[in-house]
Amino acid sequence: MTVRISPVQLARRITLGLSLVGLIVLTILHQRMQGIPSIDALDPFGGLETLLKYIAGGEFIKKIEPGNIVLLGAIVALGFLLSRFYCGWFCAFGALQGVFGWLGKKIFRRRFEVPARLDAVLRWVKYPLLAAIVYFTWRTGELVIRPYDPLAAFGHLSAGFSEVWAEFAVGLVILVAVLLLSMLHERAFCKYLCPLGAVNAILGRVPFFRIKRDKPTCISCSKCDRVCPMNVEVSTAATVDSAECISCMECVTACPTKKETLKTTLGGKAVKLGVVAALGLAIYLGAAVVGQAAGMLRFTAKSLGEQAAAGALKVEDIKGSSTWTMVAEAFGIELERLYREAGVDASKVPPDSMIKDTGKLAGIEGFEADTVRFAVARILGVPYAGEGGESAAAPVPTASVPQANPASAAPAGGGTGTLSVPAGFALEGTMTVNEVAKALSAPASAVLAKLGLPADTPRDTPLRDLKDAYGFTMTDLKERIQK
Ligand code: SF4
Ligand code: SF4
């Protein structure tokens, strides 16, 4: 049997498919190539978080790009005009749930319903969740949702299971649970948990776009109810004004009467379905094109070398996908000195390996690109406050980049650099090396050197758990850190 699909639904499936495939391709390339932005830079919800941080502290979140704000702006415009159109037409995670929903229908050949009362309660969960994210982002200035974000976990799958598990264990568990649940109950995450869906649902309260049902021509077949992925009851409503409606128009295109029983309206006036779809596509794609033209939305970035040539290279431009050679060449630093300053054994980490693979190659637990940024900043003598820091590094003009001076090189195992320990700093056995480094705004390698521990000491293990293996007492360490 041939299933005919309306042009509007074909367009919707194409945009959703492109969003999902585009996201997968970009995240795979990000793991393998220099200059491809991470999923953090493409997540519109990151735009909301970074805006909050900017309002609270005058600074954007570092993993976030101006492009996130462009996408967020488009979604807000869509939210006001067409309610949750983004959810129904562009969201890659919605598309992924759709794929699993389709699989579930093929396997189980039926649709499972959540009991109405439970469903009604669960649909409210996304709002306090949104409020909590807004509150904690405001307080901390961090991407608080990141470790729990199933989309972020999905976007890092190509890095390998162990890496995703180490960084996104909770997000990965939520991802698997949501996708399995989607096989039984369509778009479960959109209905119950999505904070961006909550934002759109709130914006969609502005009654500009609505679907209206013409009672006299309705034959009460309930087909509209059956096709609705969000379980909105269309067949009895005069106007569909549910905050759950994702403007997918499935109900409209499925209605069998051919008498425009379900009409799409804008500002109370009936408007052709194709016009509504074209308006939604134009707003989102238009914002993407304008953002790209204005240089705010990017899918590739200048390499470190190109930034150096343009005289705009900064320490924070070093990414996990940068290689050791690229960093050394772009900043004009001797490769050997860079390894030493970062406390990394050069014999274990080839120069063309990416910074983010260093921990695995050198057996250094919790090694982060920030260690390399600190090392570069120390060598160059420029300020750098760390990934979560409040101040940005000063630009490093290539012409003035000092060359490494072997005579002043730090000892193997990482130099202490600018590590200064305030009097009264309390070193606790429950702290990890990375936590101490964060508390002191210093690289982990400098902390290890100060504590007299070898460079390959695990950096995410509480110090008290390392005592026996490394032969120290907490009293020793407390003395060493204050020396
Ligand atoms: S009510 Fe209609 S447009 Fe809204 S989500 Fe359900 S099927 Fe889609
Ligand atoms: S699909 Fe159309 S005719 Fe059938 S119940 Fe819904 S609005 Fe009425």
Question: How does this structure look, described?
Answer:
The protein is mostly helical. It folds into 3 domains: 7-203 and 280-293, no CATH class; 209-272, Alpha-Beta Plaits (2-Layer Sandwich), CATH 3.30.70; 304-482, no CATH class. The chain is built from 23 helices and 4 strands. It has a 4-stranded antiparallel sheet, with no helix packed on it. Strand 3 and strand 4 form a beta hairpin. Helix 17 (335-342) crosses helix 19 (369-380). It is elongated and about 85 Å long. It binds iron/sulfur cluster (2 copies).
Please provide a brief summary of the model.
The chain folds into 3 domains: 211 residues, no CATH class; 64 residues, Alpha-Beta Plaits (2-Layer Sandwich); 179 residues, no CATH class.
State the helical fraction.
40-55%
Number of domains: 3
> What is the topology, as strand order, of the major beta sheet?
2-1-3-4
Outline the low-pLDDT stretches: 389-417
The gross shape turns out to be elongated
Q: How many beta-strand segments? A: 4
Q: What is the N-to-C succession of helices and strands?
A: HHHHHHHHHHHEHEHEEHHHHHHHHHH
Q: Ligands in the structure?
A: iron/sulfur cluster
Question: C-alpha Rg, in Å?
Answer: 26 Å
Q: N-to-C terminal Cα separation, in Å?
A: 80 Å
> Largest sheet at a glance?
4 strands, antiparallel
The number of helical elements comes to 23
- The fraction of residues assigned to DSSP E strands is under 5%
Instruction: Return the average pLDDT rounded to an integer.
Output: 82
Short descriptors:
single chain, 483 residues, mainly alpha, Alpha-Beta Plaits, 3 domains, four-stranded antiparallel β-sheet, 50% helix, 3% strand, elongated, binds iron/sulfur cluster
